[in-house]
Amino acid sequence: xxxxxxxxxxxxxxxxxxxxxxxxxxxxxxxxxxxxxxxxxxxxxxxxxxxxxxxxxxxxxxxxxxxxxxxxxxxxxxxxxxxxxxxxxxxxxxxxxxxxxxxxxxxxxxxxxxxxxxxxxxxxxxxxxxxxxxxxxxxxxxxxxxxxxxxxxxxxxxxxxxxxxxxxxxxxxxxxxxxxxxxxxxxxxxxxxxxxxxxxxxxxxxxxxxxxxxxxxxxxxxxxxxxxxxxxxxxxxxxxxxxxxxxxxxxxxxxxxxxxxxxxxxxxxxxxxxxxxxxxxxxxxxxxxxxxxxxxxxxxxxxxxxxxxxxxxxxxxxxxxxxxxxxxxxxxxxxxxxxxxx
Length: 342
Known about the structure:
Layout: H1 8-15, H2 22-29, E1 49-53, H3 58-69, E2 73-78, H4 81-94, E3 101-106, H5 112-127, E4 135-138, E5 149-151, E6 154-157, H6 158-174, E7 184-188, H7 200-205, H8 216-237, E8 242-246, H9 254-258, H10 263-269, H11 276-288, E9 298-301, E10 304-306, H12 319-333
Parallel strand pairs: 1-2, 1-4, 2-3, 4-7, 7-8, 8-9
Antiparallel strand pairs: 5-6, 9-10
Helix pairs in contact: 3-11, 5-6, 6-8
């Protein structure tokens, strides 16, 4: 089985690009201008229904608050009820003048059955027969410090299960309910996905990659690369469904500051990292934009389409490789998918 090592060219170009820091935000808003965000009119998104996974903290919580400020009915998903309730209380305090409509759903997205059951419940109990889901924001993702399985008695490796398989299940279940004029699926990814070429069999082998054979950064990166490649494939297969992936830049979040593998990076870059609101900007911009302004299936950073691969990095995927990726993900999730699949 081929095993991809980190591309030296990609690593040099990625880590040397300071536009991932606050400098990139200045590029959006103009030299020397502070972060401004989007329209704060409390009725700008009135009547829109938005679901944000990983919405109890960090970039997800910031995006949820910004969308709620514009009048959207926002549903946030997380596995920690205490954090979920605290996030809602915090948003209510911050946005009291906007009368935010934010609801929390406790779901463990590392477990495939929990993801499927939530998707069914959300469609039937929240949306019902008459309402559509306007925006699905797939923000939840994990970088495990060591190899672990999503279920103690079995299941898949934590990053594979949470970042990719549950992402695929949730998107497939809810895509048929995204029928509004400007409905879309937005997936938040790490630009670390640029560092590795993806071999689908490597994803499958994560379940057994224990001990020194396990690399949490690589697992995180290749599961994000898979999300990018499959999002691009969906745009080709389903021209009526608008999709996009977005890199929020390098953001100072609790997840980054507590990640064991990222301590050196965090210590070095802390003063240049974006705030959570700055990181959420392009996510919110995509969510609030008319679909005709969005290039479906593309990868965005700072409100612009960016390339998936660096030139000469050797990381690009062929259509045959994406076929293999799609087949593998469908195989691993087949028991949890609806009859009509993306």
